[in-house]
Design brief:
With about 110 residues, the protein is mainly alpha-helical. It is about 80% helix and about 0% strand. The chain is built from 4 helices and no strands. It starts with 9 loop residues before the first helix and ends with a helix.
């Protein structure tokens, strides 16, 4: 997964380093390293897609940002109002995760 700035993830960077090594040397050892790193990347991505873990992380981030946005826009909100907003967002997050789990292959 890339960061918001378009940089490579650590896994992508390691894969590119392995590819660069193999391209420059074309040794069997570097080919095996590239195959192993690529296999890990593909496996991680498949697991992520099958389990929806990347979506859960997105939902969690959206939940936190929504709460932070409420607090920022309502600096005089009472603790009860903040608690209600947190509860509302957590309920939405939980519903989204449950919906994701019902469509998951596991």
């Amino acid at each position: 997964m890339s960061s918001s700035g378009g940089e490579m993830s650590n896994g992508q960077l390691i894969q590119q380093v392995a590819l660069l090594r193999w391209l420059s040397s074309q040794t069997e050892e570097d080919r095996r390293m590239l195959a192993a790193v690529t296999g890990v990347q593909v496996g991680r991505e498949l697991l992520n897609r099958l389990t929806g873990q990347d979506k859960v992380e997105t939902y969690k981030r959206e939940c936190i940002l929504s709460i932070a946005d409420f607090v920022q826009k309502n600096p005089r909100a009472s603790q009860n109002q903040i608690n209600a907003e947190v509860e509302k967002n957590v309920v939405v997050f939980a519903a989204r995760v449950r919906a994701l789990e019902s469509t998951s292959m596991f």
